[in-house]
Amino acid sequence: MVKFDKLKGLSPEERIKKLKGMEEERKKEIEEAERLINQSQKEIEEKKRKEQDQLIEDVVRHERTKLEEVKRLDEMLHSLHDPVKTEEEQLNTVVETYKGLKELDYHTLTNEEKDKLGQIYESINDLYSQADDLKDVAYATRKVLRGLLKEDNLYFS
Does the pTM of the predicted model rise above 0.70? Predict the structure, then answer.
């Protein structure tokens, strides 16, 4: 109000001129304030858009990682079921499966990944049973061979 008190001592023409100048100054300040508000809103929107984009990228990256993990588990499962593998190749596959499974974090697995692990478990269990059966047959065969070779005193005395 001090500015207006100073204007009272001016002539009406000068007072109008000063008041119009002050009004013009205020209009410019208001326009500048509105421009800054708009600019600030755009900056806020841009920041939010970038954060959303980053979040989407993070989710996509995470989902790709999970998809790669499911593919890797699928490959493990299929390699365990390959019927044309030699015993050595099968052993190598089991070793590679073991190494791959050691790297997994069970707490971050999806249900699909856990299902794949269940299937891999069943496959490994089948291989284990086959190995037990093979061991039993090999033992019985070795026993028969020992008996035959003892009779001829070829290897055992």
Answer: no
